[in-house]
Recover the amino acids of this structure.
């Protein structure tokens, strides 16, 4: 019995080590969620965290993520909970975590918000549950988040593209961004779509220009290069549409894919030398006919 008494404190210490050896870092403290997403290419405000574990840290399990709504929470916000499907994105709940790990784990996604929800900031948290076994129910970490509800995200994006171009020449797409939200907002990296027959799916693409790592004030207009498409000798001649826009949001952690207000395209034509050769060939053919 004395041996048992000695073992129990040792086990308790081991469990404390499991609960404190890892670090859990929220992907953002606050994100935006919208009622009108009609101008969005992709809309998926995601609450997540990064788990970091050193190789020397004890192995352990994450068995659940429990959602705790804050005071004044509106159930019509209705976050999609990954844990309801038995996972945190790529991580399957109840799987042993061993060795050195740095893994991004998903908790929830905000849907398009019901019109009945009042605009404003709502707080919530998650208890990360787990421990030394796949049945453990220790609270390993509590992560705090906020979501701010808005009617829409009124970032206007107008695109234009140079052309026509031939092999080796770049068709440059430029953008005019206007912050019509009525408050400071963010515009970040440009995105390009991969629709079949579109420019990005058909030829090399190189991003160029200002990536907007800061905010845009209310009413601010920004002119910037967006991207460059460069056909090569294997690119079929014809007209190519540029499917493009920018990511942005009201908060620095937002990653909303905003569509432009217009479409833009450019034409790939034969190289000037090729046109000259074709012209000479036609001229020679005409002279032979005259003889």
């Amino acid at each position: 019995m004395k041996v048992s008494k000695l073992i129990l404190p040792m086990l308790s210490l081991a469990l404390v080590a499991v609960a404190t050896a890892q670090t859990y870092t929220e992907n953002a403290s606050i994100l935006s969620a919208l009622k009108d997403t009609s101008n969005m290419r992709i809309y998926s405000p995601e609450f997540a965290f990064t788990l970091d574990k050193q190789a020397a840290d004890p192995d352990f399990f994450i068995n659940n993520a429990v959602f705790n709504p804050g005071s004044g929470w509106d159930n019509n916000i209705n976050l999609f909970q990954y844990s309801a499907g038995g996972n945190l994105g790529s991580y399957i709940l109840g799987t042993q975590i061993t060795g050195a790990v740095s893994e991004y784990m998903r908790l929830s996604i905000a849907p398009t918000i019901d019109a009945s929800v009042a605009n404003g900031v709502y707080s919530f948290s998650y208890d990360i549950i787990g421990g030394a076994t796949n049945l453990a129910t220790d609270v390993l970490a509590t992560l705090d988040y906020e979501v701010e509800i808005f009617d829409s995200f009124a970032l206007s994006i107008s695109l234009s593209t140079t052309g026509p171009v031939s092999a080796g020449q770049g068709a440059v797409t430029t953008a005019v961004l206007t912050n019509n939200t009525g408050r400071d907002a963010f515009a970040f990296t440009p995105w390009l779509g991969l629709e079949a027959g579109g420019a990005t799916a058909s030829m090399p693409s190189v991003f160029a220009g200002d990536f907007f790592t800061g905010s845009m004030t209310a009413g601010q207009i920004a002119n910037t290069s967006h991207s460059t498409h460069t056909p090569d000798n294997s690119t079929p001649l014809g007209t190519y549409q540029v499917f493009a826009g920018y990511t942005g949001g009201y908060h620095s952690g937002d990653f909303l894919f905003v569509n432009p207000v217009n479409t833009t395209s450019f034409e790939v034509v034969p190289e000037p030398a090729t046109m000259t050769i074709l012209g000479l060939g036609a001229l020679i053919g005409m002279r032979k006919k005259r003889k």
